[in-house]
Design goal:
122 residues; mainly alpha; Arc Repressor Mutant, subunit A; two-stranded antiparallel sheet; 7 helices; 50% helix
Length: 122
């Protein structure tokens, strides 16, 4: 996402460009890109002049969007995902703590967009 965000108007023709730049195995990257295309975060183009580009502006794409497109809904603790899977959920003194942490993490990831991240220098 950072690679595409740093070139918002360019169609990246080859997965190899991103794979080499970020040292990500090509097959792993292809699977990630498929999930991002399915989530309509990235657009794919077929054929000889095919490739990938952002499906919307980088400022509209949050870190939470990308993580959830790849991993599914994020939960800090299993009890937040499904109270039935935790036998202590009804009487657990930490449920409120996990819920507050979940909200803060989610809010932080929602505020982080790829336009801002792509401008940061390391």
């Amino acid at each position: 996402m950072l690679y595409l965000s740093r070139q918002p108007f360019k169609k990246v023709s080859f997965i190899n460009e991103i794979s080499e730049e970020y040292k990500i195995p090509r097959s792993f990257l292809a699977k990630i890109l498929q999930k991002l295309v399915k989530a309509k975060i990235v657009r794919s183009y077929r054929g000889v002049k095919g490739g990938f580009s952002l499906a919307k502006q980088s400022r509209e794409i949050t870190v939470l969007d990308v993580l959830e497109a790849i991993e599914g809904k994020l939960y800090i603790n299993l009890c937040l995902a499904d109270k039935k899977k935790c036998g202590f959920a009804k009487h657990c003194p930490t449920t409120l703590l996990w819920s507050n942490v979940q909200s803060k993490v989610t809010d932080t990831l929602k505020k982080a967009n790829f336009e801002d991240l792509s401008k940061q220098k390391v």
